Amino acid sequence: METPKRLHIGLFEEDQVMLEHIHSLLSLAEHTVSVGKEQESLELFLAKTIRRLKRLKAPMYDLLIISIPAVDLMVRGKTFNLLVQLISLDRFPVILLTDAEDNDLERIKTSVPKLHLLSCSPLYQYDLFQTIAAATGTPTPRSLAFLRGIEKMQREQLSRMQHTEQAWINRRQEWLDQRQEWQQQRLEWLKQRQAWLSEQRRGPDCQKEWLDEQQEWVRQQYEEVEQQCKWIEHLRLWLNRYQKKLDRQEGQPPLSEAQ
Questions:
Q1: Phi-psi bin for 251: left (phi > 0), alpha (psi -120 to 50), beta?
Q2: Which of 22, 148, 211, 221 is the most buried (most CB within 10 A)?
C-alpha cells in the first residue's frame, strides 16, 4: 500500500481550543503543522504571509488552513480582501473554516472559486480530511494507527464536552434553586402584606383609595411571582431532559467517521 504524502500545512486559528484540536488531527495524519503566532491578528497574519510569498520563489506550505468567523468575513472588508489577494498568488491551496450560513458560503464560493470552504460549526474530522484530499490530492490516511488515534481523540473530546456540559447544568440548577427560594420568600412577604392590608381595612379611618391601590399592586406581584415560578419549573424540566440525554451519552463510544 502506498504511503500517503506528508504535507506541510500552515494553520491559523484564533481559538486556542480549536487550534489544538485541528493541530492534533493533522499530526495524527503525520502532517507537519506550522501555526500563526499567539495573539497575532488574522489581518496581520495574512499581510505577513502575502509579503513573504512575494519575496519567495518556493511556496511556504503545501496547504494553508485559515479559520475566519462569519462576522469578520461580512463586516471586515480588509480581511476578505487580504484573503482574496493571498489566493490570487496561487502558491498553494487554501481551506477556509468558517461558521457562515449556507447562503453566505455560496456567495463566498462564487466570489473566490479557488477557495476551499468548510463549515466549522461543528467541524467534523471526516469533512476536514475529505477537503484536504480534494485540495491537495493527498488521500486520507487509512492506517490502523491513524484510525485508533482518531477514535481515542473523539473519546477524549466527548469526555471533555460531557464534563463541560455537566458543569453548566449544575451551575444552572443551583441558580434555579436560588431563584426559586427567592420567589418563595417574595411570596411569603406578599402574604404578610395582604394580611396587613386586610387588617387596615377593618380600621375606623381606613384610606380606602390608597388601600385599593396597594391591593392592586399586591395582585400584580402575585401574578408576576406565579409566572416566575412557572418559568422556573419549565426550565428545570428542560434541564432534567438535557441531563438524561447527557447521562445516556456517557460512556458510549463516539461514531468514528474515518471508518
A1: left
A2: 22
Confidence of residue 3 (pLDDT cuts 50, 70, 90): low
Residue carrying C-alpha cell 484540536: 21
For the stretch 152-175, pLDDT in tens is: 877 777 787 788 889 999 999 999
Going 252 to 256 to 257 to 259, the CA torsion angle's sign is negative
Contact predicate 13/19, CB 8 Å = yes
SS3 string, 134-149, reads HHHCCCCCCCHHHHHH
Q: Distance between CA 14 and CA 40 in Å, rounded?
A: 8
Mean pLDDT of the 218-228 span: 93
- Cell numbers at residue 14, please? 484564533
Q: What is the CA angle 75-78-81, rounded to 5?
A: 110
Instruction: Tell me the C-alpha distance between 58 and 56, whole Å.
Output: 6
Burial class (CB in 10 A: 0-12, 13-18, 19+), 61: buried
This prediction has a pTM of 0.62
